[in-house]
Amino acid sequence: MPESQADCLFCKIALKQIKSDIVYEDEFTVAFNDINPQAPVHILIIPKTHYATLDDVDDHGIYTPLFDTIAKIVGMKKLKSDGYRVVANCGSNGGQAVNHIHLHVLGGRPMKWPPG
After folding, report:
1. What is the model's pLDDT at position 116?
2. Which of 16, 34, 77, 82 could lock 42 by a disulfide, CB 3.0 to 4.6 Å apart?
3. Long-range pairs, 31-40, Cβ under 8 A, ≥24
């Protein structure tokens, strides 16, 4: 059963009901350090609007603020020169663990391909 917006971990982080290590926030997005980092830099970027999966997005304008936030994080963490990876998982087979769309920004080490 999909979790509701009221039960959504990432909605609670966006609303500051759950403490998180927030590294950036604006009107549309929140970016915070992953609690189980897979790289020296591993930041999650979420929209403040709840969408369970990428397939649930009905306002594609949400992607612009998400990618603007990626650019800000990449600059803040000085990842541009060496490179970085952005990952979006969708659904259980895609590896999505929290039913709120989120982007992973990973950097600070060489990435392997295929990712898994």
Report:
1. 66
2. 34
3. 31/69, 31/72, 31/73, 31/105, 34/104, 38/104, 38/106, 39/85, 39/106, 39/107, 39/108, 39/109, 39/111, 40/107, 40/108, 40/109
3-state secondary structure of 32: strand
Instruction: Please state the pTM of the whole predicted model.
Output: 0.93
> Residue 71 pLDDT > 80, yes or no?
yes
Question: Is 83 within 8 Å of 107 (Cβ atoms)?
Answer: yes
**Mean of pLDDT values over 23-37:** 97
For 107, which DSSP code? E
Which CATH code, of 3.30.428.10, 3.40.50.150, 2.40.50.140, 3.40.50.800, is assigned to 5-107? 3.30.428.10
pLDDT for residue 4: 67
